[in-house]
């Protein structure tokens, strides 16, 4: 009798774990052959490592898994491990068991900015979000950053059918080539039309566009970003305006589709479904089966974007299967959260210093020399005047946009003078603002725009 009760209890516990995206694809007959996410498990039973971080202080690494099988990533373990130092994402593990892990992209047709021509790794804290109220981190891709696997197993080759989806930040993009996720060349070089089939997101318009000014979900099929059969424009491919976006591309012999929607609410829309582009080399396709994230097939690395989760399937998923996956994504309740991590926080009235996190430059702080905001080497033994130039008082912003609160940075050495761009503000809810330095002058990056800091009274 007691054994029967125990068995029933275990069965009830298992049934409470909702099917993940890859469970849904498998039920539809198109199983995942690659599944990557730094935010959550994509199978209901997955409890392994989602990604690995490496901290700057001692190069130690830590694998981050979900809080429970099928659950959200254990961001607290990352925060604890990375306290007082910087961390980079070294590996995004494949959850399918095929070993299709994504690691630092090697040089190809284009070289990256890291040692030996490799691309940069992403900061582990650049894209904080919450899923059902639980904190997690996405993959914040800056230009020059990229991940790849040129020896993937089970991915589509030639004209074989495949499906893909990715959940992305709809406000983080640019017109560079190419923020992709999907199937690419195994040589990291352009080997011709039709040798790729990957999701693209951004405003690159050299080859073609959708309607409006973008950003658009398009397909990178190599030597072209396509929004439909017409290589120049498909007006049904709408510009994206949601903070979180679900992007879908799928293809089979002389048939492919682009679909998309708000990853936080609602259903998917079909932006294109039909024959292959009317350009030589794309019918039949010649897919090679490598996997890329944040870059083009030839390692073009001028794009930017943020990736939260994505999969590649064997077979051409039905719209019904993808609609069920979209419902699962919406149920995950992606939401923005503070840009700060660990125990740090922005508190109005507090005095803070802002230190560079790039490995080369962690002794430098945002400071100013007259009207120019820059970075300077500052330490506890520095002159009082220099330390004041590198200290800022948090103030409330001059405006509220869309219900979002903003901060301003008041210069401690020249009270009443602020850094701004041109309306001085820093979002506390995860809006995509980043500090950057070029030529010893500090800039602020918001979404796809770069603006120089100024001083305002």
UniProtKB/TrEMBL annotation:
Signal peptide: 1-19
Key words of the record: Carbohydrate metabolism, Disulfide bond, Glycoprotein, Glycosidase, Hydrolase, Polysaccharide degradation, Secreted, Signal, Xylan degradation
Catalytic activity: Hydrolysis of terminal non-reducing alpha-L-arabinofuranoside residues in alpha-L-arabinosides
UniProt GO MF annotations: alpha-L-arabinofuranosidase activity
Domain annotation Alpha-L-arabinofuranosidase B catalytic: ranges: 21-335
GO CC field: extracellular region
EC supergroup of this enzyme: hydrolase
Pathway membership: Glycan metabolism; L-arabinan degradation
UniProt-annotated catalytic positions: 222 (nucleophile), 298 (proton donor)
Source domain of life: Eukaryota
Domain Alpha-L-arabinofuranosidase B arabinose-binding, residue spans: 354-402
GO BP of this protein: arabinan catabolic process; L-arabinose metabolic process; pectin catabolic process; xylan catabolic process
EC number of this enzyme: 3.2.1.55
Disulfide bonds: 22-32, 82-87, 177-178
Entry protein name: Alpha-L-arabinofuranosidase
């Amino acid at each position: 009798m007691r054994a029967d009760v125990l068995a029933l209890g275990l069965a009830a516990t298992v049934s409470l774990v909702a099917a993940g995206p890859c469970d849904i694809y498998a039920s539809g007959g198109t199983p995942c052959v690659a599944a990557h996410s730094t935010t959550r498990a994509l199978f209901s039973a997955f409890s392994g490592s989602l990604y690995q971080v490496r901290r700057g202080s001692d190069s130690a690494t830590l694998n981050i898994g979900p809080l429970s099988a099928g659950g959200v990533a254990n961001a607290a373990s990352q925060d604890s491990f990375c306290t007082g130092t910087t961390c980079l994402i070294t590996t995004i593990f494949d959850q399918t068991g095929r070993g299709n892990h994504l690691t630092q992209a090697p040089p190809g047709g284009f070289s990256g900015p890291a040692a030996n021509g490799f691309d940069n790794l992403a900061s582990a804290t650049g894209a904080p979000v919450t899923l059902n109220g639980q904190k997690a981190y996405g993959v914040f891709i800056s230009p020059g950053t990229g991940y790849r696997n040129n020896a993937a197993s089970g991915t589509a080759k030639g004209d074989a059918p495949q499906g893909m989806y990715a959940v992305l930040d709809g406000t983080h993009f640019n017109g560079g080539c190419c923020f992709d996720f999907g199937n690419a060349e195994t040589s990291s070089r352009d080997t011709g039309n039709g040798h790729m089939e990957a999701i693209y997101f951004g405003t690159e318009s050299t080859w073609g566009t959708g309607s409006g000014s973008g950003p658009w979900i398009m397909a990178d099929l190599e030597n072209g970003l396509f929004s439909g059969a017409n290589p120049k424009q498909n007006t049904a491919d709408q510009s994206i305006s949601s903070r979180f976006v679900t992007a879908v591309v799928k293809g089979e012999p002389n048939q492919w589709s682009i679909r998309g929607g708000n990853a936080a609410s609602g259903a998917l829309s079909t932006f294109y479904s039909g024959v292959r582009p009317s350009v030589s080399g794309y019918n039949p396709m010649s897919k090679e089966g490598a996997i890329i994230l944040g870059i083009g097939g030839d390692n073009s690395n001028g794009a930017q974007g943020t990736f939260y989760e994505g999969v590649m399937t064997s077979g051409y998923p039905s719209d019904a299967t993808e609609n069920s996956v979209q419902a699962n994504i919406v149920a995950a309740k992606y939401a923005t959260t503070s840009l700060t991590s660990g125990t740090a926080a922005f508190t109005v009235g507090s005095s803070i210093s802002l230190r560079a996190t790039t490995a080369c430059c962690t002794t430098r702080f945002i400071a100013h020399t007259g009207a120019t905001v820059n970075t300077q080497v500052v330490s506890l033994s520095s002159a009082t005047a220099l330390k004041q130039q590198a200290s800022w008082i948090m103030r409330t912003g001059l405006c509220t946009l869309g219900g979002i609160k903003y901060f301003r940075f008041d210069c401690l050495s020249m009270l009443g003078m602020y850094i701004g761009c041109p309306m001085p503000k820093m979002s506390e809810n995860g809006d995509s603002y980043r500090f950057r330095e070029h030529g010893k002058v500090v800039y602020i990056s918001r979404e796809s725009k770069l603006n120089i800091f100024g001083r305002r009274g």
